[in-house]
Amino acid sequence: MMAFMYRALDSFLVPHRVLKLALTVLPLSASVALDRRTEVRNLIVDTDLFSDIDDAAALLLACTLPETKLLAVNVNVNSTYSAIAASAITNHYGYPFVPIGLPRPYANTSFFDTYAYALGEYTSKIAYHWSGGSVPFFELDATWDPVELYRKTLAESQNGSVTIASIGFSASLSGLLNTTADAYSILDGYGLVAEKVKELVIMGGGYPSGHEFNFWGQNASHTAHVVNTWPDSVPMTFLGTEVGEAVSTGARLTVSGPENDPVKAGYQWYVGYNNTRASWDPLTVAYAVEGLGDWFEYGNKNGYNYVYPNGSNTWMDGDSKTNQHYLKLKVSNETVAMELDNLLLRGARMHANYISR
């Protein structure tokens, strides 16, 4: 997730977000209290994998949660390392052919923590040391234009079957809405979304109001376009910065995860051994795949999210819309953190021998 230091305007300091492991460690056999589904959840992840490790954890879950089919990954930053790292991660966890979108023009940029000089770069390292999948190291011609990848993937899917987890910026989704008929579908962007998308789940904003980086950090007009004009027939659910900040995970993966695991390595490079990070993006993917379960409840009954031109947002009350919601934790943040760590460890161990290192 992009730009760790800007999650909320009043919450810039890194130290309170990088916490030593202090949770009770239960065995992986402990129950994970999410919905038990029999239908397959078709998923597209739209990620700003670059300057925060929680995007990598979200991809781990997208690949390893039961009854999930990862259809595509759109990277919404233009770093070549981000796309190659996304391919490496999905390849490691069993998706060697999943297509990766990368915005043009792209550049060989990497993250450097100029705010606190505390967090480490990881995408280029994962890209190189775990090279594989649909976009091997610097075979960038294999990446897709993100908007074209959206149109192709949605057009080829069953009606009402695709969940989109947006865990970064909104440029590609905005571009999708602006599209017209093409070789993939006679429908324009709004029509294609209305026909094919089951739900859009967004990590962004603060609730009931806020000013969070995912909404304003790249281009606030894209966010406003997506959130304010999304087809009314397609549900939108939001996980705000306050929810992700309350749940710290990842330390157990660095301690107990398989030695050949790319996300374990990413956490070690980013925050160090036995340190945690806030869980904005893995929580968003967990909800996108599993629903409310025992972790979440809705913070509202009716109303809708409104995004202003500067990227700030406010929840508007009213009965005109009933299919937009923002999430709250239903159980303690410690319980969710423990169970989310279980999911990360389980997914990593499932694929411990997928790539020999």
From TrEMBL:
Protein's UniProt keywords contain Hydrolase: yes
Top-level taxon in the UniProt lineage: Eukaryota
GO molecular function, one term: hydrolase activity, hydrolyzing N-glycosyl compounds
UniProt keyword list: Hydrolase
Sequence ranges assigned to domain Inosine/uridine-preferring nucleoside hydrolase in this UniProt record: 43-291
Pfam families in alphabetical order: IU_nuc_hydro (PF01156)
InterPro entries (UniProt xref): Inosine/uridine_hydrolase_dom, Ribo_hydro-like
Family: Belongs to the IUNH family.
Name listed for the protein in its UniProt record: Nucleoside hydrolase
